Structures are given as structure tokens and as C-alpha cells.
Amino acid sequence: MGSDPECRLTCQYAVEYGAKVKSFLSRVGVPRPVGGSNEGKEFACAACGRTYRHQSSLRSHMRYECGRDRHLACQYCQYRTHQKSNLKAHVIRMHVAEYRSRKASLNTD
Ligand SMILES: [Zn+2]
Ligand SMILES: [Zn+2]
Fold first, then answer.
1. Which one of the ligands is nearest to 94 CA?
2. Residue spans per domain, the chain
3. pLDDT digits (tens, 9 = 90+) for 65-79
């Protein structure tokens, strides 16, 4: 009772088989269940294509960020920001020469 040789064989086989399946899955990758969860569902801005996980984030982006992006672009390079102070700091820091010469030419004119 208890030590049936056939059962031991079967159990041994199950352990070996399980290990093989595990290594096989780790090689090919375990398929993840698709659908059924809200994860990965994103809200994309129609204007610029940025994606947000929450609709409220997208709304605040469209309201406060997206519309202002276009207005606050650096005139010397591709830098963009939605904060006026950021743009001013960027221009002074990165384009101080151009900024000064433009200001000087405006003054002398
Ligand atoms: Zn946008
Ligand atoms: Zn710039």
C-alpha cells in the first residue's frame, strides 16, 4: 500500500514532462490572454497623437497642453513647450547669441 511501482513511474514521467513543457514555454513565450481587461486601452489625441490611459488626462491635455503647443515653439530650433517661461528660458540659454543680435538689430533700426 502506498508504493505502487507503476504510480511512481507515472509520477516520474509527469514531473519530467512538466519540466519539458515549462522549458518549451519559456523558449517560445507564454501567450498572454487578450481582451477582457481594460489595460492597454488608451485614449489618443486626435490633434497630435499622444495617448493617455485616462480620458480625463486626454481632456486636460487637449484643453491646456495641446492647443498651446503650437503657439509656443522655439523660433530657432525644434524645441516646443506649453509654458511661456520655459520657452523664454530655453531661448536665453540655447540661443543667447541669436536672441541678442535680434534684439540689437531691433533697437538700432
Ligand atoms: Zn494633442
Ligand atoms: Zn531653440
1. 2
2. 43-108
3. 776 545 678 889 988
User: In sequence order, what DSSP letters do the residues of the chain get, joined into one string?
Assistant: ----HHHHHHHHHHHHHHHHHHHHHHHH-PPPPPSSS-TT--EE-TTT--EESSHHHHHHIIIIIIHHHTTSB-SSSS-B-S-HHHHHHHHHHH-HHHHHHHHHHHHH-
Ligand 1 mean position to 61 CA, how many Å?
Answer: 6
The pLDDT value recorded for residue 98 is 85
Q: Which CATH architecture has domain 43-108?
A: 2-Layer Sandwich (3.30)
Tens-digit pLDDT profile for residues 28-74: 665 554 444 445 679 998 888 889 999 999 998 888 777 654 567 88
What pLDDT is stored for residue 62 in this prediction? 84
Cα distance between residue 109 and residue 107, in whole Å: 6
Output the CA 41–ligand 2 centroid distance in Å: 35
